Amino acid sequence: MARIEIPAANIAFECPENDTILRAALRSGLGAPYECNVGSCGNCQFELLEGQVHSLYPAAPGLNERMKQRNRHLGCQSQPLGDCKIKVPLREDYKAKILPARTHGALTRMRDLTHDIREFRFRLDSANAFLPGQYGLIGVEGVEGARAYSYCNITNVGDEWHFQIKRMPNGACSNALFDHIKIGARVSLDGPYGNAYLREDAPRDLLCVAGGSGLSPMISISRAFAQSEKLKDRMLHFVYGGRAMRDLAGEDMLRELPGFGTRIHYHAALSMAEPEWKGRAGFVHDAAKDVVGGKLADYEIYYAGPPPMTEAITRMAIENKVPVGQLHFDRFY
Questions:
Q1: Does residue 175 contact residue 168 with C-beta atoms inside 8 Å?
Q2: What sections of the chain are H helices per DSSP?
Q3: What's the pLDDT tens digit per position in 97-123?
Q4: What CA–CA distance (Å, rounded) separates 41 from 49?
Q5: pLDDT digits (tens, 9 = 90+) for 5-44
Q6: What is the pairing mode between strands 11-15 and 2-6?
Q7: Number of neighbouring beta carbons within 10 Å of residue 60
Q8: What's the pLDDT band for 273 if we cut at 50, 70, 90?
Q9: Beta-carbon count within 10 A of 116 CB
């Protein structure tokens, strides 16, 4: 157990063995900044004032040489080798609504959603709830490091975590899940994490935009929306984009929800022309803008998917004067 001090804030917390500085801070209820949790975004960087840390991912894209020369490290990839003092800008909005916890779970079910997206359901040894739109970390035997995947179910208990995961061509973890894991197999689980969760108190209709495995958190948000008493007078538009018809998903799950066709609406767009396709064509961010008649600022916008998609939505929202507080996504690379 290492003691981590933040002198500027007059705060200290404990980091258990084999935990990272970021996750230990979040488990302690501190508002340490982060997004991806896997070394890609760089948002969790801190300055090491005293002590030593071990990096789980020395080549992490979220930390460049200039940062390293300034003695900066990634909180999500740093394990203390003893007591440390660090400098990190704590923020109230990063405090966990539900404290993340480490546990294990067993795979109970799998089902294919598209040619390269599959749903995996795990029953946890120790339950921990999460908010719709958040994500958890999965560690698979034989794969170095945990991977972040968004939940697709909703729960007040947290005894089951469901994920809709896309197979990545060079993804060690996704390929292990698709090709090798069997029912009953055990994995390590850690969470919940993420700040792109459903805001039930927001006074606007919802626009959910997804592509690829961004389907998972948007399905979770839509399911929670359908059950929310606070949102019963709101509308939700769900826009899903794919390259080809075989990539499309989500409509069948939304059709199961109360309010589909009245309060909940599904829209699909293809970026590649197919002769038999009669729906929207073009990029999903353009389709989303078209769906709401260009009035993006009137919506609470949730989105998830490949980085070019999320970057395009962010640019479009800023160009259309959408307040930053109405944009909800976690940055993954």
A1: yes
A2: 21-27, 65-69, 172-179, 215-227, 251-255, 284-291, 307-319
A3: 999 999 999 999 999 999 999 999 999
A4: 22
A5: 999 999 999 999 999 999 999 999 999 999 999 999 999 9
A6: antiparallel
A7: 18
A8: confident
A9: 17
Give dist(CA 226, CA 302) in Å, integer: 15
CB 292 within 8 A of CB 207: yes
Q: Which domains does the chain have, with CATH numbers?
A: 2-94 (3.10.20.30), 101-193 (2.40.30.10), 205-328 (3.40.50.80)
Q: At what angle do helices 284-291 and 307-319 cross, to 10 degrees?
A: 40
| Complete DSSP assignment for 10-78 | TEEEEE-TT--HHHHHHHTT-----SSSSSSS-TTEEEEEES-EEES-TT-TT--HHHHHTTEEEGGGE
Q: Which one-letter amino acid corresponds to residue 132?
A: P
pTM: 0.95
Rg (CA), the chain: 20
User: The tokens of 324 are what?
Assistant: 């930053």
* Angle CA 326–331–333, to nearest 5: 155
